[in-house]
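Technical annex, item 7. During the second reporting period the consortium partners agreed on a shared format for inverse folding records so that results from different sites could be compared directly. Each record opens with the tokenized structure and is followed by the designed sequence. A conforming record, contributed by the partner at site C, is shown below for reference.
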């Protein structure tokens, strides 16, 4: 039995140590348990109560992933807006948000595409745009339940299109409600 445990521990150690095998950093979980994402270290989290006609709460998270500056924005919709959203055809709020956001970018926009998140295939969209000639932002936006999520990577055009940036986006999960 002792040899078996030692063998299993050795296999786990050597498997983790294989070069080129990326290990995800620990998952960060939102305070309300509604999403997780893998970040390096402890992120800076700012929460703002925003009682009003559109938002109830806004959470802004800044951190790092593979030495890339990353952000996560989570806006919790007001009960009034959430009720109006439920009366819209499925996906209409996301379409409206995309049209307004992409429309503001103008010639800074480099690419846009529709995407899906997770096993429930939550609809979303991805945009990449130039904040200035040397700084780019790649962002995924999703609407799930009464929340608007915006997950972004900042860096050079090469960095925001890198495998490390894609791994960061792929680590995002909606854990409360639909997913």
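Designed sequence (site C submission):
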């Amino acid at each position: 039995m002792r040899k078996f445990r030692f063998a299993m521990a050795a296999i786990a150690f050597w498997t983790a140590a294989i070069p080129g095998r990326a290990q995800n950093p620990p998952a960060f979980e939102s305070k309300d348990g509604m999403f997780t994402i893998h970040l390096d270290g402890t992120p800076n989290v700012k929460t703002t109560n925003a009682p009003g006609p559109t938002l109830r709460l806004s959470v802004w998270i800044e951190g790092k992933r593979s030495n890339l500056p990353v952000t996560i924005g989570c806006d919790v919709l007001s009960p009034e807006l959430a009720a109006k959203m439920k009366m819209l055809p499925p996906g209409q709020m996301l379409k409206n948000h995309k049209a307004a956001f992409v429309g503001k970018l103008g010639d800074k926009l480099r690419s846009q595409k529709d995407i899906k998140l997770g096993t429930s295939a939550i609809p979303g969209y991805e945009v990449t745009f130039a904040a200035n000639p040397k700084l780019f932002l790649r962002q995924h936006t999703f609407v799930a339940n009464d929340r608007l999520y915006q997950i972004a990577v900042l860096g050079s055009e090469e960095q925001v299109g890198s495998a490390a940036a894609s791994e960061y986006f792929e680590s995002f999960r909606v854990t409360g409600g639909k997913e």
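Confidence is low (pLDDT under 50) at residues 1-21. Residues 25-174 form a domain with the Protein Transport Mog1p; Chain A fold (CATH 3.40.1000.10). All partners now use this format for quarterly exchanges.
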